[in-house]
Amino acid sequence: MPRVCVFVSFLLLLVSVQSRHFMKFSYEELTEDVAKDSVPMAVLVKPLNDNVLRFKQAWRLGSFSWSDCGKPSKIMSLTNLVVSPDPIEEGATAQVTVEGVMDETVSSPIEADVKLEYNTRIFGWKTVPCTQGVGSCDYPNICSKLPSGTCPIKKGKYHMTKSFPVPTSPPSGDYRVTVNLKSQGTWLACFHINAAISN
């Protein structure tokens, strides 16, 4: 049974790095969200075809940081998180290296509550809505999205480096992501990620 590191999977769910739909909202959905002041006007760019928003192909990940915001009673701890290379370019290969500790074995279902925010500068931090599984979304059971045999996640230390194709870049700006995890009513962990992206 493969010991796939759950922490990498959580990160991949946050940024959808394996999805070709990363940060590609429909024009109608995005303009509606902007009208509600839930995402920044800077996100809007001229669609290049069929109402699909596209962004620049080269981007830099700067001032990247993370923290473990878990309670003392947490079961899951993140000890290291590294993303490379810098700059990151669409079509290239990036790597995520993650280390973590599971204090107890955790069974399915594992719920993930993800909050993604973007700094609009003028209006401050705004929540990016959940669109096609990307953004501020609630995932009722991330085990269903992981390779077979991953859950239950056994007690122990985990270290994993995973390579993946780089998706279309998001708009430039400051982002922050907060992930809360729980299983069958038991609170597991909290992770907080800050990143600045420039095109």
UniProtKB/TrEMBL annotation:
One of its GO terms (biological process) is ganglioside catabolic process. Pfam families: E1_DerP2_DerF2. It comes from the Eukaryota. Residues 66-195 form the MD-2-related lipid-recognition domain. Residues 1-19 form the signal peptide. GO terms for molecular function: enzyme activator activity; lipid transporter activity. GO terms for cellular component: cytoplasmic side of plasma membrane. SMART domains: ML (SM00737). Keywords: Signal. This is MD-2-related lipid-recognition domain-containing protein. It comes from Littorina saxatilis.
